[in-house]
Design brief:
With 239 residues, the chain is mainly alpha-helical. Helices cover 70% and strands 2% of the residues. It has two domains: 63 residues, no CATH class; 164 residues, no CATH class. The protein has eight helices and two strands, in the order H-H-H-H-H-E-H-H-E-H. Helix 4 runs parallel beside helix 6. The N and C termini lie far apart (79 Å).
Length: 239
Amino acid sequence: MQMFILSDIYEPHKLANSAEDNLGLCSITKPPYYYNYLQLKGNYKFKDTYDTFIHVLFISLKTLRNKYNFFINTSKEVIAFAEKIIKFFCCLGLLLIPFAFKRENLKEWLLVFFVKGYITSFIGHFAVKGRQISYPIRFLPKFFKINVVFDYLLFPILCGFYNRTSFFSTPITTIFQALLYSMPMTILEVILEKYTDLIKYKNSWNWMITYLTLAITFLFVRLFMFITRKLHIETDRSC
């Protein structure tokens, strides 16, 4: 059975063409289940049922692509699609900024924002240099090797919400919230890693490392702000 490489995921017409060539077809004019019917009659013989399923699946993908224009076929379209995702999250982050910061204790929330951005970008640079993660398509690629929109905008904003909701929480609830806030971002990153070129895992990096890294950085910033407030209160009392 013919094997297909990972890059063909973004060019499903290659997959469909390969299956079509093996079947001896020049065009798809009949529904995919018709070829399964022919195979059962003996007109087309495959090694086993699994080969039959693979061939029919790829023919179905080509049929859907031609009918609904569902798939991305060229590298230019892949890049354009990824750039639209970046623009969307950038606009989303900018819209969330007024809700992430309150006028009360604005200096503290800005400190949370910048500390989280610094830590996340530091870890991101370390992971990229260590060849654990790569960002093939990113914002300002000539100046940054990390995903600026996530590391400098979305993650810090999310950390701001986390610090606000856990401001009066107990230690156990604070840890639980850190794990909870890390979950949607990890799921989003896994989806982007699987279906786009915005991020790619390499070597031993996986979703669990991302999840734990986010949770630990949330807790670190929360602890940092707790110590900062304590020192500020003691300074005011001494004065």
